[in-house]
Write a structure and sequence with these properties.
This protein is of the alpha+beta class. Helix content is about 30%, strand content about 20%. It has a single domain, classed as OB fold (Dihydrolipoamide Acetyltransferase, E2P), CATH 2.40.50. It is built from two helices and two strands; from the N terminus they run βαβα.
Length: about 60
């Protein structure tokens, strides 16, 4: 995947714990403008990833 970072969450410099507290909200890391947004369709969905992690943890 290719793209351009268009914004970085400056709050993380002083509040890195935001990533753990609210990763899908205030704890975002960067905003990226993708060259080929359709490539997102190739990524694993969160629920599938969580199931895989649980399976490998046993």
């Amino acid at each position: 995947m290719r793209g351009e970072v268009i914004e970085v969450n400056q709050r993380l410099e002083n509040e890195p714990e935001l990533i753990n507290k609210d990763a899908f909200g205030e704890g975002w890391i960067a905003r990226i403008r993708m060259d080929q947004p359709a490539e997102l369709n190739n990524l694993m969905e969160a629920s599938v990833y969580e199931a895989m992690i649980k399976e490998t943890a046993h």
